[in-house]
Amino acid sequence: MSEQQTQHAAFGRPIPAPPVSLETEEFWKRARDGRFAIKRCVSCQEAFWYPRAICPLCHSSETAWEDSPGTGTVYTYSIVRTFPTGPFAIGFVTLDEGPLVLTNFVDFAEGDLAIGKRVKVRFVATDNDGPPAPVFGPA
Ligand SMILES: [Zn+2]
């Protein structure tokens, strides 16, 4: 584990290995290459999160993967200060493509995390050699 990942674990909390299903296999495959992917509906053209086979907006089964720069803004957040492994922050990011993503925040100095702040995705190791999980930090 690199020093950077150790720092994530110290600020955040250990992240359990995410369950990989047929619907999300492609997402985790790209994540192992450091690529953040979202899905877009071929029928209504809307991007959506979380990745799934059926468009949640128009129920079309014609959806496609696309790489995203993983940039957006903090919609809201909450800091959990009392936790056995130390404080951590969770909240929602509005991706530049539109969808809201529930996520962990990392690499923010105390008092720096704020609504409207620009953020960018990074990946952190998960327990049991699971695929890396997307989290967001300062852009
Ligand atoms: Zn649609």
Give the structure's gist in a few sentences.
With 139 residues, this protein is mainly β. The protein is built from two helices and eight strands.
Order of helices and strands: HHEEEEEEEE
Number of strand elements: 8
Assigned CATH class: Mainly Beta
Strands side by side in the biggest sheet: 6-5-4-7-8
Q: How many structural domains does the protein architecture include? A: 1
Can you tell me about this structure?
With 139 residues, the protein is mostly beta strands. It has one domain: OB fold (Dihydrolipoamide Acetyltransferase, E2P) (Beta Barrel), CATH 2.40.50. It has 2 helices and 8 strands; from the N terminus they run ααββββββββ. It has helices at residues 3-11, 25-32, and strands spanning 36-41, 47-48, 63-68, 71-80, 88-95, 100-105, 118-124, 133-138. Strands 6-5-4-7-8 form a 5-stranded antiparallel sheet, with helices on one face. Bound molecules: zinc ion.
